[in-house]
Amino acid sequence: MAPIGIEVRADGEWAIIHRCTRCRAIRTNRIAGDDQELALLQLALRPLANPPFPLDHLPVEGR
After folding, report:
1. Is the Cβ–Cβ distance between 1 and 27 less than 8 Å?
2. Quick check: 58 pLDDT over 90?
3. Rounded to whole angstroms, how far apart are CA atoms 34 and 27?
4. Residue 24's pLDDT is what?
5. Model pTM?
6. Over the chain, what is the mean pLDDT?
7. Does residue 13 lie within any of the structural domains?
8. Owning domain of residue 41
9. Of the candidates 10, 19, 7, 14, which has an alpha carbon nearest to the alpha carbon of residue 47?
């Protein structure tokens, strides 16, 4: 299982989204008290750091 994202549930609890490297099934697991906070933040910010579309095509206000 490889971590691919973070889910924030309705009650505010975080869960790690995993994809199986063999069958590609997706599962979620609640974060644990001993999970590394920095690694969780990096996983949560991954879509913002590397968006699936080019940012230079987005309209910018004031230009």
Report:
1. yes
2. no
3. 20
4. 95
5. 0.73
6. 90
7. yes
8. 2-47
9. 7
